[in-house]
Target: tRNA (guanine-N(1)-)-methyltransferase
Amino acid sequence: PTLRIDVVSIFPEYLTPLRAALLGRAIDRGIISVDVHDLRDWTHDVHRGVDDSPYGGGPGMVMKPEVWGPCLDDVCPDDALLVVPTPAGVPFTQSMAEDLSRERHLVFACGRYEGIDQRVVDDAATRTRVLEVSIGDFVLIGGEVATIAMVEATVRLIDGVLGNAASHQQDSFSDGLLEGPSYTRPEVWRGLAVPAVLRSGDHAKIEKWRHEESLQRTRSRRPDLLPADEPGQPD
Ligand code: ADE
Model:
């Protein structure tokens, strides 16, 4: 495969969407491989325990280094990129998805949100590249859904995965602005007409209109994305 993906989780069944739809088709066609591992396979005690209370006190549990360490020794070779989803990570962006799509082997280590003992990451970082990544300013129960989001954003950028190779070059964010609205048939639906310019056949005018719509939408929804010289910038 062009890209090999391994995912470690205590809820492996939660990652089944990775085998559905377009991702499943990319697996069937040999473009990517996806292997999901159950962290509990690396436990030794009868209770198959993976977490313990935090040093220093406080709520929640922290995932044990004696389980994660041997697991990553087995699953994450030195030349892979280890991605650890955490709300305390650096923000995931389209440009990070582009970087990940050029890797050969990604390993996602899904922990619960209170986290994995930091020494697991620090130890892995002595031999391999590690990224602690957040998919947004909200808190999920664990890293599984964040992993699905990052894998989907990454894999769709690989040649041959999407039907239309050019379609992702016009995405929201590829030019730094949000995409404007799209329309298909019929021309009038529930009394609402498709903007006339889109049916004009004047491609220069259509491009100009789309750019204006992108700017307007970005101004109202995401002023933080606008270049500094654009009106609508937050102070
Ligand atoms: N785990 C819990 N919340 C997360 C987030 N926002 N991003 C990545 N991983 C997470």
